[in-house]
Specification:
Number of helices: 22
CATH superfamily of the largest domain: P-loop containing nucleotide triphosphate hydrolases
Number of domains: 4
Helix content: 40-55%
CATH architecture of the largest domain: 3-Layer(aba) Sandwich
Strand order of the largest sheet: 7-9-10-11-8-12-13
Shape: elongated
Radius of gyration: 31 Å
Distance between the termini: 54 Å
């Protein structure tokens, strides 16, 4: 079957293949029923017009609250099930009625017809032992599909279908395909037509952003968000976009594994320093996400890996990439995937990947993935759970066809399974190194200015500070700036740049490049051999710093010992 096969066609092919039991976890039961009704009608029309010689489809739905109801049936199927159909006198039914109905179908024959029974709220039935027994009986003996003239299938449906392990292997999953962008547009257009047109003034650009925000949600969720926005903003205007985004985030649930990061919490990439090569690469990839790129069929990028010394801005630049690509950002906490119940970890990972894929355009950040992935290298103490979850992630990375852009950051290289960095999973592997002299100047200036303070040293002071911070990473430079502002406020009552405070702080601080010299050296060497630098400037050596304090004056640098890495 083709990769783009629809839900209706997938369901039809599985029933015709003789699969007796199917399962679908969905929050859109009404849409499922519409799709199935359309399948029944299209099949019947094709047969009546002589375009097909197959069998007609009939479909019923059953729930514990409403009993058996018609979705779309032929006269013969209606007559066969008449005694079980819900009426005003027969609205309250027992869960055992579904077993009776299936047994009735088993013993009856309608020529040239397929019958589908959709069981709503199926998770409620599974703990009932007679229901479980009958499911096993159907699967083992295949009795519902016992002859060529009679085919009956059962579709178990629930918002969060939870199938017990002892019967799970008898029930095959069928995925309801996500609403396409065009379908989202139709839902939005259909809803706005019922609104006062004077109150719908959203711009074309705003509508495009709104559709992108709502893509990946269910039809019900889209309508709920639009009506909510219309209510609190007294119409649909460009000002609803932020509210719609906030509501869309609330609608995306994945057991806390995915965390949405609002745009307001993400730095602009122009505020970051030392990433010129990476920025150029991302700008090139961004073309694929433009309307022109989509129209001419450019391949969608997979994403990148960022490896490097801790504190060098990997997380910050990874988040900023989401702004460049114009897509929402989600962070996956891989360690939170693991649960205590059998099959829970695999289910959580599967649901999280479905959630992010359903966005049809999002940035997924696996931050500090080395902490989680190091334990996924085939551990023997968890019955293979880690390996299976890790395999799910690898398979998804290799096979995904959606527009999700994946960014993985790593601080260490020990314990990372080699297949994770294999070509084809990512477009490029970059490394972030300790900033060079000019970049350190820029970083210090940015951190003063983003806090609203002037960075106004003379040229000699600037050179002295730049030299003194040799071996500092971005996070250490930020901490230096914060210390300077606090200390200057304490001393003089006014927070400001103060060279002496900065040099005193440097003299009393040991940087990571000194404390973890061997580990950092190993990371830098690995990256130099296996990855592309994020910056075009030349890599600097790792220093061993010797500072002395002159008690009658400012601290000064006595000497530097540099070790090439």
């Amino acid at each position: 079957m083709p990769e783009t096969i629809s839900f209706g066609e997938s369901l039809k092919e599985r029933i015709m293949a003789g699969i007796p039991m199917l399962g679908i976890s969905t929050k859109e039961p009404d849409r499922v029923l519409r799709e199935i009704s359309a399948l029944c009608q299209e099949t019947e029309q094709a047969i009546n017009e002589g375009r097909s010689k197959g069998k007609k489809f009939s479909a019923f739905t059953w729930s514990v609250s409403h009993g058996l109801e018609i979705v779309s049936v032929t006269p013969d199927a209606r007559d066969l099930m008449q005694e079980y159909l819900a009426t005003d006198d027969n609205i309250s039914v027992s869960p055992m009625q579904i077993v009776e109905i299936l047994k009735h179908l088993e013993s009856s024959i309608i020529s040239n017809e397929w019958i589908l029974v959709i069981v709503s709220g199926a998770s409620y039935l599974f703990p009932i032992e007679p229901v479980r027994d009958f499911i096993r009986e159907i699967a083992v003996q295949n009795r519902l599909n016992g002859d060529n003239n009679h085919r009956v299938a059962v579709l178990f449906m629930d918002a969060n279908l939870n199938i017990p392990n002892d019967i799970a292997h008898w029930i095959f999953d069928v995925d309801l395909d996500k609403l396409t962008r065009d379908q989202v547009i139709r839902v939005v257009s259909g809803l706005t037509q019922g609104m006062s047109q004077k109150m719908v003034t959203i711009s074309e650009q705003g509508l495009e952003q709104l559709v992108q925000t709502l893509t990946g949600l269910t039809e019900f969720e889209i309508k709920h968000i639009l009506l909510y926005c219309y209510r609190i903003h007294m119409g649909l205007h460009d000002c609803v976009l932020e509210t719609a985004e906030q509501e869309a985030v609330k609608a995306i649930k994945s057991d806390g594994i995915l965390q949405y990061i609002p745009k307001s919490q993400i730095d602009r990439i122009t505020d970051l320093r030392g990433f010129d090569s990476l920025i150029e690469f991302i700008e090139n990839q961004r073309i694929s996400y433009t309307n022109v790129g989509r129209q001419i069929g450019l391949d969608m990028p997979k994403g990148i890996t960022l490896i490097g010394v801790p504190g060098t801005g990997k997380s910050a630049v990874a988040k900023a990439i989401a702004r460049v690509l114009g897509m929402p950002l989600y962070i996956m906490d891989v360690s939170s995937v693991f649960g205590s119940l059998v099959g829970e970890s695999e289910s959580r990972m599967r649901n999280a990947l479905k959630s992010i894929s359903s966005q049809q355009g999002a940035v997924l950040l696996l931050d500090e993935a080395d902490k989680a992935l190091a334990g996924m290298n085939g551990g023997v103490h968890d019955s293979g759970v880690s390996k299976r979850v890790f395999g799910q992630l690898l398979t998804w990375l290799a096979e995904k066809k959606d527009e999700t852009y994946v960014i993985v950051t790593m601080n260490k290289i020990d314990g990372i399974p080699p297949e994770f960095l294999r070509k084809g999973r990512f477009d490029e592997v970059f490394y972030t190194d300790m900033p060079d002299k000019d970049t350190r100047k820029d970083i210090i200036r940015v951190h003063f200015e983003k806090r609203g303070f002037e960075f106004n040293p003379n040229q000699n002071e600037l050179e002295e500070i730049a030299n003194a911070t040799h071996g500092y990473v971005g996070s250490e430079l930020e901490e230096l700036v914060k210390h300077c502002l606090r200390e200057s406020l304490r001393k003089s009552g006014t927070p400001c740049f103060d060279k002496d405070i900065i040099l005193s702080y440097i003299a009393g601080t040991k940087t990571m490049s000194i404390l973890n010299k061997e580990e950092i050296g190993a990371i830098r060497k690995f990256c130099a051999d296996h990855a592309t630098p994020v910056c075009k400037r030349k890599q600097e050596s790792v220093p061993t710093q010797k500072l002395t304090i002159n008690l009658r004056g400012s601290p000064r640098i006595d000497s530097w010992e540099e070790s090439e890495q």
